[in-house]
Write a structure and sequence with these properties.
Strand content: under 5%
Structural class: mainly alpha
Radius of gyration: 30 Å
Distance between the termini: 78 Å
Helix content: over 70%
Number of helices: 35
């Protein structure tokens, strides 16, 4: 086999340590032999490892990547990084397949020191291991290598230096013991020397990993240490390395005095709190915001804290508390209006008004939300030139377009999304949103064109492939739909929506066995998921097995007593088993959940008829006939039976 060994210790190069080694080894040959494959995955390959541009050329620019950090209002997080990692995994799988087809040796990737890998690398290796085909690509994972103790002739000073020059990654016990027992002043001097050696010309990975490690332990942790931590931190914030942002933010706080360096302390804390949200560590995020609130009396700090806590309440806490959110966000807006600098006051008032608009949207006050966004856009247009705060203004335009869509103003929303696509053509959210409008209009061709473009230029977002799959299904492109659903479930086998849709498609094409296997696979990951349990019962019903269907439908309704599909199908099972009265009860509850539905009314009418309650049956049939989408022929037939 063609073996590539990558050391993954996070102290070397932070996120993607080891992944970068593999790509550096493979990309030159891949670029020469299959340049179209490299180009297809260029965004993902360069996103977190921009140094690879020296091998494959620069990444395309976006509004977010081109703008200054001080004006950044669009941030990504762990989910974006996961999508990028999925794209790199897809690249490696395809590359390994092509190499095998060309007669090359199968690839074997060895990832060492995984016990100390940064979470981004750990997640990547997990994805690669799960998805790869061992016939063409094998993955070997190792932690600390056990070694027989042997006599070491090196002096104490040599052992200490060896440990430091390993950038703190050595597993040699003699080196570790020597380091632990060394004079602290000597250690500081050696850490400085190693940092001085590494820092000039260091790439981002080395800066995040080894350089920050040494500067923190050198002679000036609060000066040069804090400065390099801040540089590494900013890169990770811009990229969306959430775990690294939290790590560097906590370390940055430790070497920053909030009394004398409030701006730096606020920056480390604010972005670390935001990154904790992306990692679903909401309580820790709130604790950091409250820590800022306790440490500072500055209005801008309290404005930032109020905004952050408002977003936790309106977007992330379960249950959501939009009323608490509006209180915190009103406070953020009020504090913004009191800032002494006119330019800062204007910028932050508009930003906080946008936050108010989000909360109002969640409260159901769409028109008020639109007024706030419109006001912010008008103010920035009047007071700024075209090149100032471009990214933030695009966010305001985006929010206005989404509000227009939510208010049913499809033409305005479509035009605004089209303008945004021209402004920032590589931001795939705009294409996805415009595709939604096209679908509602019935223009599936336009929707598919936008989905295809988004797939071509962006990382593999599972939701994007799922949406394209359902659009393909709507135009009867069954093979295309299967391809998209298959890819989603290859990436994310726990995606319930895709699992259900693919099972339904398999069932509709006559492959009940495959549909059953699909749902069972989903239940292995989510044993109590009501939708999967209901689908399992539906499959049994389709095979005319109502007795086998009932336990699954009962289990689904135990998890969600008002799940309509389970209620309707359980009613069908009871009806087939001669329990029409019980079917009526389930269908009545289903109607209470979904409202007047012609198919459910038809079914309940038939159940009433089987109970010899023809007057109630006729009432349901008549009500169903008055609704759009009713099966008129069947309803009229049932009315004749009643008469």
């Amino acid at each position: 086999m063609h073996v590539i060994t990558a050391v993954c210790h996070h102290r070397l190069r932070g996120p993607y340590t080891g992944v970068d080694t593999v790509l550096r080894a493979l990309l030159p040959d891949a670029q020469q032999r299959w340049p179209e494959l490299v180009e297809q995955h260029k965004v993902e390959l360069l996103y977190g490892i921009p140094e690879l541009a020296e091998l494959i050329g620069p990444a395309p620019s976006t509004l977010a990547s081109a703008g200054p950090f001080s004006q950044r209002t669009r941030f990504y997080g762990a989910q974006m990084i996961r999508c990028m990692s999925q794209g790199i995994v897809t690249f490696l799988i395809d590359l390994a397949r092509r190499r095998a087809e060309a007669g090359d040796q199968p690839l074997c990737l060895v990832f060492k020191d995984m016990h100390a890998a940064e979470p981004t690398t750990s997640e990547f290796v997990e994805l690669l291991t799960r998805r790869c085909d061992p016939a063409t690509l094998q993955v070997v994972v190792s932690t600390v290598e056990e070694a027989e103790p042997e006599h070491d002739d090196r002096s104490h000073d040599q052992l200490v230096a060896a440990y430091i020059w390993s950038d703190g990654t050595s597993a040699n016990q003699a080196e570790i013991d020597a380091y632990d027992n060394a004079d602290p002043a000597v250690l500081q001097r050696l850490h400085d020397e190693r940092a001085d050696e590494l820092e000039p010309g260091a790439d981002w990975g080395t800066l995040i990993g080894a350089v920050t490690y040494h500067r923190e332990r050198g002679t000036d942790p609060h000066g040069r240490g804090q400065e390099v931590l801040d540089r590494a931190f900013q890169f990770c914030v811009e990229t969306g390395f959430s775990a690294a942002v939290v790590d560097l933010g906590i370390r940055g706080r430790a070497v920053t005095d909030p009394a004398t360096q409030p701006k730096q302390y606020l920056r480390f804390t604010q972005h670390a709190a935001s990154a904790l949200v992306a990692l679903d560590r909401l309580t820790e995020s709130l604790e950091l915001y409250l820590d800022l609130r306790a440490k500072f009396t500055d209005a801008k700090v309290h404005m930032t804290v109020s905004y952050g806590i408002a977003m936790l309440h309106t977007r992330f806490f379960v249950p959501r508390d939009h009323e608490a959110a509006i209180g915190w966000q009103n406070n953020a807006y009020t504090l913004a209006s009191l800032l002494p600098d006119p330019a800062e006051r204007r910028t932050y008032e508009v930003f906080q008004a946008n936050g108010l608009a989000l909360v109002e949207m969640h409260r159901g006050n769409l028109k008020r939300a639109l007024e706030l966004v419109d006001g912010g856009i008008a103010r920035l247009n009047d007071e700024l030139d075209d090149q100032e705060w471009v990214l933030h203004r695009s966010q305001l335009f985006y929010n206005r377009a989404r509000l227009h869509a939510a208010l049913g103003r499809a033409d305005e929303a479509y035009a605004e999304f089209s303008e945004l696509i021209e402004l920032d053509p590589l931001y795939t959210d705009y294409l996805s949103e415009r595709a939604k409008i096209s679908r509602k209009r019935g223009d599936l061709e336009a929707a598919l064109a936008d989905y295809d473009r988004a797939v071509q230029i962006g990382p593999p977002f599972p939701e994007l492939y799922y949406n394209r799959g359902t659009a393909r299904l709507a135009v009867e492109d069954v093979d295309g739909a299967f391809a998209d659903f298959d890819y989603v479930l290859e990436m994310e086998p726990g995606d319930v929506d895709t699992r259900l849709t693919r099972a339904e498609l398999l069932l509709s094409t006559g492959d009940a066995q495959a549909a059953h296997a699909d749902v069972v696979a989903g239940l292995e990951l989510s044993p109590d998921e009501p939708r999967l349990l209901a689908m399992l019962g539906t499959i049994e019903l389709e095979q005319d097995q109502p007795e086998q269907a009932l336990p699954h439908l009962d289990a689904a309704l135990a998890g969600d007593p008002r799940y309509p599909a389970a209620l309707v199908n359980r009613a069908v099972a009871h009806f087939r088993l001669g329990r029409a009265a019980t079917a009526v009860d389930d269908l009545t509850l289903a109607l209470d959940v979904v409202g007047a539905d012609p198919d459910v009314l038809l079914n309940r009418g038939m159940a009433y008829l089987a109970c010899a309650q023809s007057e109630l049956a006729m009432q349901d049939f008549d009500a169903a006939l008055a609704l759009p989408g009713a099966d008129v022929e069947e309803l009229q037939h049932q009315l004749e039976l009643c008469r």
